[in-house]
Design brief:
140 residues, alpha+beta, Thiol Ester Dehydrase, Chain A, 3 helices
């Protein structure tokens, strides 16, 4: 993820519950960190999940994730999760995320999300949602 790309960032602390018996972050917990990053990016854009469902009748479901695990995070590490949109389509979007410790990339993720209705069927993204997400769009 390029430093000049529009991105949202949150800080995350590694707690005991995030680690294995050796004090290393269990691989699946990076997905939780990434989910928090996407949720807080939406919140920063003025959108929250309950409003999406209640006002627009849509939500997001993860369709595909690829993760490149580079280095481990450990108990009590201070991490950041950077999130940027790299593709916003009619009923889906792609987010690129990086979990870092300082300036060191630990995990790089590419997450494809589907915009869905309550019944699980695809739905076109409402224009206000699309406009809000454009603030975090990277056209590279």
């Amino acid at each position: 993820m390029s430093e000049n790309m529009p991105a949202h960032s949150i800080d995350v602390r590694v707690y005991y519950e995030d680690t294995d018996s050796e004090g290393i972050v269990y691989y699946a917990n990076y997905l939780k960190f990434a989910e928090r990053g996407r949720t807080e990016m939406l919140r920063a854009a003025g959108i929250d999940h309950p409003t999406l469902w209640d006002t627009h009748g849509v939500g997001f479901a993860v369709r595909r994730v690829t993760a490149d695990y580079i280095r481990p995070a450990k108990l009590d590490d201070a991490l950041s999760v950077r999130t940027s949109m790299t593709g916003i389509r009619g009923a889906s979007l792609t987010a690129e995320q990086v979990v870092r410790r300082g300036e060191e990339d630990l995990v790089r993720l590419s997450v494809q999300l589907a915009c869905i209705r309550r019944d699980g069927r695809p739905a076109r993204m409402p224009p206000p949602l699309r406009a809000a997400l454009n603030a975090f769009q990277n056209d590279a």
